[in-house]
Specification:
β7, α7 (204-212) and β8 (216-219) form a beta-alpha-beta unit. This protein is 42% helix and 15% strand. It has helices spanning 20-23, 38-58, 79-88, 108-121, 135-141, 149-165, 204-212, 224-240, 262-280, 285-288, 296-303, 318-323, 332-346, 362-375, 400-406, 416-423, 453-459, 477-486, 488-500, 524-545, and strands spanning 5-9, 62-65, 94-97, 126-129, 170-173, 178-182, 196-200, 216-219, 250-258, 327-330, 350-354, 465-472, 503-511, 514-521, 551-557. The relative contact order is 0.10. With 558 residues, it is α/β, with parallel strands linked by helices. The chain folds into 2 domains: 5-380, Luciferase-like domain (TIM Barrel, Alpha-Beta Barrel), CATH 3.20.20.30; 465-557, Alpha-Beta Plaits, CATH 3.30.70.
């Protein structure tokens, strides 16, 4: 199998609308926001945000935040804001935005400042996108003339790149942007700037732009034969630019759904696939590609039937969607084989998968992402199954992808020699005497586990955590707050110790005269080490606050 990195693009779509033929010509522009339900919208965004923490625990290499405007195709209209939230909910996984649209800014300096700030907040985990944006975005935002989209984009990119690379104040005098004084503060943590992804449907102009600037090509919305041609054009352009080739410069893109068997996967996913095809992409051609938005050669290619929107997407059948490679549905083995085929032909070193499609509920998306992490990802990684961001050396596992790589069959089902073999390889041995199925079972032999699995995934974490609640009754709340304000050095000591020993999160809740602290820990060992190190500081603060001996509760969540 190829060695791949895996990224997830969460959808964040609002599916509670009539079918496309009932709401007008364009899903992007003319769908009335009277269909929007604030309560359902809140739930969608909460579920969206909750997936980032799950994806890190599962072992994905990164998450990609897209943005759309003027319709229900995504409730994330501000990818920069969502990235800031995602960064605060994760610790190691890469976070990227593909949005924002450079042309939507009155000045590229604003975008440069946002990129730099997110890079710092993420401790160098951030990457950003340079999408042209479809024509509907230009109509929806109302600040850009799509006739000059490409010309303005190129000038804005020149300004942006100078902002990242210049070390003295500079002036800029262009057709669209003019300033006597440009000086980026702060600068990004990654020098000179984070990795940039360019989503492209395949114009040679976009592919050449990405190659010449050392950017990554995110292959989107292109029929299979054209996609392979585009990948070769991009590789040739990289070579012509004198750059060393890295397969990670091409990111394959697909909607992926994996279940226990091929039959079950289709039963669960088909309705959501068809709803996406028939409803979420509907718009007239001129909405997506107004005059000036694409190059003349690209328009000719579309007119000749060789590119994106060469046919009405809503007429695509389920089988055609699978054949195109834009949808991958099946058992772990079927999905892995299809990913191997697609990424090998493309020469791609990364896969960006959408795991929630259009109408898929949160529990189903979580089930899908979990099975994929445990039973598909390890096949494309080095022995041990670690994501690219995990450089640690330790016993046991940290993410579900590692568990899937090293767990093997249950020890009761294997001989001593087979256990030793399992520890030295990422592919666990099978045993016909084992009652519990492993990920090497065939699709036909694997029992149907979906009925129980959604509840498991929805209500429990995929890896073990230690939850500690500390309840302090009859506290003088004002005194507690005053002590915290007067002794910041003691609070800082506790904060450093929490981080050092693997504290995942810390929350304090006030209820009347009662205080409750809720902490989540990676392991019991880390918790005990923290208490041993910080016990004297905790006792000193308790004495200063005048709080009595707290009652505590400790339990594990799997």
């Amino acid at each position: 199998m190829n060695k791949l990195e895996f990224y997830v693009a969460n959808g964040g779509k609002f599916p509670y609308i009539p079918r496309r033929d009932k709401i007008g010509k364009s899903i992007y522009i003319s769908t009335p926001n009277d269909y929007y339900d604030p309560v359902r919208g809140q739930r969608i965004l909460e579920d969206y945000l909750g997936l980032f923490e799950l994806e890190e625990k599962l072992g994905y290499d990164g998450a990609v935040i897209l943005e759309q405007h003027g319709g229900p195709n995504s409730l994330v209209g501000q990818s920069i804001v969502m990235a800031a939230a995602a960064i605060s909910h994760t610790r190691e996984m890469r976070i990227g935005t593909v949005g924002a649209i450079l042309n939507s800014y009155r000045t590229p300096m604003r975008y440069a400042e946002e990129v730099a700030t997110l890079d710092i907040l993420s401790n160098g985990r951030y990457f950003f996108g340079l999408p042209m944006g479809i024509g509907a975005n230009y109509h929806g935002l109302g600040v850009m003339n799509p006739t000059y989209a490409r010309e303005q984009f190129r000038e804005g990119h020149e300004f942006l790149k100078r902002a990242f690379t210049e070390r003295e104040p500079f002036s800029f005098d262009g057709k669209f942007y003019q300033t006597e004084y440009a000086n980026l503060w702060p600068r990004p943590l990654q020098d000179p700037y984070p990795e940039a992804w360019v989503p492209a449907a395949g114009s040679k102009d976009s592919l050449s732009f990405a190659a010449q600037n050392g950017y990554t090509y995110l292959a989107v919305l292109v029929p299979w034969p054209i996609l392979l041609k585009n990948c070769q054009i991009f590789r040739d352009a990289v070579e012509e630019a004198g750059q060393e080739w890295d397969p990670r410069r091409i990111v394959a893109n697909a909607h992926v759904y994996v279940a226990e068997t091929d039959k079950q996967a289709r039963q669960e996913a088909e309705a959501h696939v068809m709803s996406l095809l028939q409803n979420s992409l509907g718009s007239p051609f001129h909405d997506s590609f107004p005059p000036g938005h694409v190059t003349i050669p690209s328009l000719r290619g579309m007119a000749a039937g060789g590119g994106y929107r060469s046919k009405d997407i809503s007429t695509t059948t389920y089988e055609e969607g699978l054949e195109s490679g834009q949808f991958i549905v099946g058992s772990p083995s079927t999905v892995a084989e299809r990913i191997e085929e697609i990424t090998t032909k493309m020469g791609a070193g990364r896969l960006n998968l959408t795991g929630d499609m259009w109408t898929m509920p949160d529990w189903m998306a979580r089930k899908n992402l979990t099975i994929f992490a445990e039973e598909v990802m390890p096949r494309f990684r080095e022995p041990g199954g670690k994501p690219s961001w995990d450089k640690s050396s330790r016993a046991g596992y940290r993410t579900v992808s590692e568990y899937g790589a090293i767990a093997g069959s249950p020890s009761s089902c294997r001989s001593r020699s087979s256990r030793a073999s399992a520890r030295s390889t990422s592919a666990p041995p099978t045993s016909p005497s084992c009652a519990s199925p492993s990920r090497t079972d065939s699709a036909e032999d694997r029992p149907r586990r979906a009925a129980a699995r959604p509840t498991l995934i929805r209500n429990r974490r995929s890896t073990m955590s230690i939850i500690v609640t500390v309840r302090i009754p009859d506290a003088d709340i004002e005194r507690v707050r005053q002590v915290d304000a007067d002794y910041p050095e003691l609070r800082a000591q506790l904060g450093e110790s929490l981080k050092r020993h693997g504290n995942i999160s810390h929350r304090r809740v006030y209820r009347g005269n009662e205080i409750m602290d809720i902490d989540e820990w990676e392991s019991e060992e880390g918790l005990r080490a923290f208490l041993a190190e910080s016990g004297p500081v905790i006792a000193q603060l308790a004495e200063l606050r005048g709080t009595g001996k707290p009652s505590d509760t400790i339990w594990s969540i799997y």
